[in-house]
Amino acid sequence: MKMESLVAPVLILLAVIAGVLVAYSAARRRKAARGAAPSQPAATPQELARTAAGRLTEEQHRRIYALIAQGQAMAAIKLYYEVTGEGLRASRDAVGALAAHPQPYVGKEPVPVLEEDDDEPQRFPYRYRAIASKGDVTREVSSNMLNDEIYGRIRTLARSGDTEAAATALTRHSDISLKQAREFIALLDD
């Protein structure tokens, strides 16, 4: 009799243990499927807002804040999701952080163009010959301060219409006068 009274509680206990094991196994599989990234410290809401604003163009920034101001959080999340490619949860968190900690639009820093302000251009161990011709007129510049890259930049300047900058760059990297450089560049602008 006593044994029969213990069977029901033991079966219930076994069912609970089995349920816990199944739930634990499913949770481990889901975590493995997500690619269990190493744990990183959670960003503060202010940092998240700064990062989120940095991913937006000026127009996107304006549109998202307009939606937030109108109380259209779902539309703002959808727009952020579409323009950044972040996941839905990350987009929700980003828009929430942007709403809680408004960020001004900070334009992207322009990539500085390296100007060649050195006193002396680099000298190469060889002489580079650049030849330009149009019809019967041919000009040649030979210099050990020219190479393919520099000459390519000079040609690009000439073809884009900035002939004065091209002529100046050519005189800087050769021993010809500005007048001779302008004549040479005039043959390149086609």
Describe the structure.
The chain is mostly helical and 190 residues long. Among the domains are: 45-100, no CATH class; 128-186, no CATH class. It is built from eight helices and two strands. It is elongated, with a radius of gyration of 34 Å. GO terms for molecular function: DNA binding.
Fold topology:
Elements: H1 2-33, H2 45-54, H3 58-69, H4 73-84, H5 88-100, E1 128-134, E2 137-143, H6 148-159, H7 163-172, H8 178-186
Antiparallel strand pairs: 1-2
Helix pairs in contact: 2-5, 3-4, 4-5, 6-7, 7-8
The number of E-state strands comes to 2
Q: Taking Cα atoms only, what radius of gyration do you get, to the nearest Å?
A: 34 Å
Globally, the shape reads: elongated
> Count of helices?
8
How much is the average pLDDT?
A: 83
Q: Major sheet: size, sense and barrel closure?
A: 2 strands, antiparallel
Q: Give the low-confidence spans.
A: none
**How would you spell out the order of helices and strands?**
HHHHHEEHHH
User: Structural class of the secondary structure composition?
Assistant: mainly alpha
> What helical percentage do the residues reach?
55-70%
CA-CA gap between termini: 108 Å
Give the neighbour order of strands across the main sheet: 1-2
Please state roughly what percent of the residues sit in beta strands, choosing from under 5%, 5-15%, 15-25%, 25-35%, 35-45% or over 45%: 5-15%
Organism: Pseudarthrobacter defluvii
Keywords: DNA-binding, Membrane, Transmembrane, Transmembrane helix
Transmembrane segments: 6-27
GO molecular function: DNA binding
